[in-house]
Predict the 3D structure of the following.
Amino acid sequence: MAANTIFFMIFSLVAIISGFVMITRRHPLSAALSLVVTFISLAGLYGLLAAKLLFIIQILVYAGAIMTLVIFSIMLLNVQEEDLPAEERIIERVSITTLILLPMIYIIGRSFTVIKDGQFPEVSQDFGTIHSVGMFLFTTYSFPFEVISILLLISLLGVVVLAKRRI
Amino acid sequence: MIAGLQSYLLVSAILFFIGVAGVLTRKNIFIIFMSIELMLNAVNLTFISFSRFMNNLTGQAIVFLIIAVAAAEAAIGLSIVILIFKNKDSLSVDDFDVMKG
């Protein structure tokens, strides 16, 4: 077995298990910490797929910035055991969710029958590097890139407006 | 055995369904928020696998934009959650009925 496959199995198993742990924890802080593990192993999967820039961005922005913001808010609110929702009738909701998601197994099975040969082609050495993705973003995708900066500015202003008022 | 495109799509689908299950079953607003983040990441994994499969950088550019949108969404969403928690003193989505939805 190739080393690539072994790393793929480790990263995907860790991602799936800690994702499942995330939705089953009672306290949001434990859930947030296991979601960080999911994001880091997803970064490993991105690295296996030769996405070098996104590997760094996933760790810096997702596991670093966004999850720090989530953990910071949970700690800022000082969530106690009695603040947590009761999660009543959990068995009913879990069974209904299972019923909804069961047909999706068919869709997963389709991905194995429709895509016959899923082997990845050889790519050049600079595929997914900061240079190549940066050139692509600043030439072909320069307009969406600028729009994103306006979106971030609006969200910055929105947070300030929300933080200053009482509803 | 070498992990091909199907294996990555399978992992992505499982992560997406875990996120859907979290949104459908839980009442805690933070868990629902993090399940949405998990679904976004599952879609990102699909984009990157197809980008590698097609030998085309468009998928990675889109993932870059999705991560920026997720950061903006996290900032706004968490500030709204903090405001509602300060007013309602609860984290349950059942109590979040300011807009009579």
